[in-house]
Amino acid sequence: MLIKKIFLLSLVIIPISSYAEEFSIIIKSPSGKTIKDAVVTLSSKDNKKLQTGKTYKIDQINKTYVPHVTIIPAGNNISFPNKDNIRHHVYSFSETKKFELPLYEGTPTEPVTFNKSGIAVLGCNIHDWMRAYVFISDTPYYGLSGESGSVTIKNIPKGDYSLRVWHSRLKNQSDFKPTKIKVTSNQTHPYQATVALKPAFKIRRAPKAKRRKY
Amino acid sequence: MITSQAYYKNLILSLSILSTTIISSVSQANTFGDIDIGVINDDNLTRSDYNSDKKAGTALELFADYGKFYDLNNNLSATSSLFVQYTSHFDYDKLSTFGFGVSGSLRKKLGLGAYSSSVQSILSITANNVNDSKRDNKTLDLSLGWNKRLNDMWELSAGVSLDNSDATNKVFDTSGTSIYFSSDYTISEKLLLNFGVSQRSGDIISVTSTSNPNYTYISLASGTNNISDKVFGSGLTAYRVNATTLILKTSLSYALNDDSSFNVGYEHQNSSLAYGIDYKNNIIRANYIYIF
The domain that contains A89 carries what CATH number? Predict the structure, then answer.
């Protein structure tokens, strides 16, 4: 009886273990500095179907969007809770998703659905320095780099993929072109991608000298 | 020139009513405050054309305000604030001034997004108490400006402004009209460079001695608007003349974090009046600003 159970369990485990590969990559600048908030995607002709209907969240805290970069699979939603004690306004002019949430406090009742893959840049018309990016992925295999610049994508089948790396300050859009890679079961060292970024010319929030009268 | 005290009282009352109306018409208001501490040096405080009459001086400047920000709708916002300011002159203590006042602004964004242009109007009323009491004054400043951020590096602004000062002694009454243009250039994430040019047409106060070779012309230009003045020493006369002043300025702002910055600036002023008389002065300043 016990042998039969083990046999049946192995039938379940074996396909899963052959499916559950990992892909690791480190994103660095040409000078070797690790890059945070880089989006990594892997796509293939056999991409599994995207899970939809989930609601992600981008908070507004201390007049800042948190997180700065959010990745969601196409067909999912984002809610925008305002955790400040003032009103905020959320807009996107991006072709991927144009929308506007007029001034509000608290959490809007309806989240925003992002059906089309691409990038949506968010802003607040009251606080111009507030900016966030939504990367709407057409593949379920994606990841966002942290301070270490590394991304690990788990549960990905072995095979040939197109690797793309995106960052909100990409200097050369050619860096966003796909690169062919192979996901194997024996990746011993992480891939390394080098991307050049534009300087961080975000709209400044700090005060500047006032214009004084003569 | 408007000199009536009643005029200012009415203006302050109007501003208060306007502020109250705004406050009651919106449900949300965000408080804000600024603290600004700095040092300023002016190489020609007397605004004199005669070298031996030119007096340079350094002062400590303190400014603090506290106010409310109102988001009236997606494109319209307003502020109202109270402020105090103190200037302590190291070299000429009689010029040291304590002031307080109210300020209000209305800003209309002409579209959606960080790069859409906006227009803004600012009104402020200040009561200044100067150690030399004949210089005590109440001032009114009104500006109407346009602002446009071209991209994350360049921001332009331009506008017109009016200033009017009603002093205890009428010689120190002044009024003027200015046009200005200013641009901010982001050098790096921390550094911001500003260039500005403005031209003001109006009254300026100058102090000189009778030994000034141009004294006769200055007397003609000022008419009866002069008074014996001992702030910079004996034997000097303060007078009011009408002049056109070109102001060129630049400043560099270093962001210490999201809430504070260290700033240095240079300003050159050139005032031209009748009879070919020019007053030139240079101002340098360094200040720390904290916002909350």
Answer: 2.60.40.420
Handedness of CA B145, B151, B152, B153 (dihedral sign): negative
CATH for B5-291 (3.40.50.2300, 3.50.50.60, 3.30.110.40, 2.40.160.40): 2.40.160.40
**Do the chains contact at A201 and B245, CB–CB below 8 Å?**
no
* Dihedral sign, Cα of residue B1, residue B4, residue B10, residue B12: positive
Q: Determine whether the interchain pair A100/B112 forms a contact, defined as Cβ–Cβ distance below 8 Å.
A: yes
The rounded distance, in Å, linking the Cα atoms of A1 and B150 is: 76
Residues A53 and A127 in one domain: yes
* Nearest-CA distance B212 → chain A (Å): 25
Interface test with B, best of A101, A204, A205 (most B CBs within 10 A): A204
Amino acid at B165: S
Give the nearest partner residue to B247 out of A128, A199, A214, using CB atoms: A214
The structure tokens listed for A34 are: 């690790």
d(CA A138, CA A115): 10
Is the ipTM higher than 0.85? The answer is: no
In this predicted model, what pLDDT tens digit does every residue of A32-62 receive, in sequence order? 999 999 999 999 887 778 889 999 999 999 9
The verdict on residue A213 lying in a domain is no
Partner residue facing A103 (CB), from B74, B152, B287? B74
* Chain A residues with beta carbon closer than 8 angstroms to that of B31: none
Residue with tokens 């910055």: B261
pTM: 0.82
- Render pLDDT for A63-109 as a digit per residue (tens, 0 to 9): 999 999 999 999 999 999 999 988 999 999 999 999 999 999 998 88
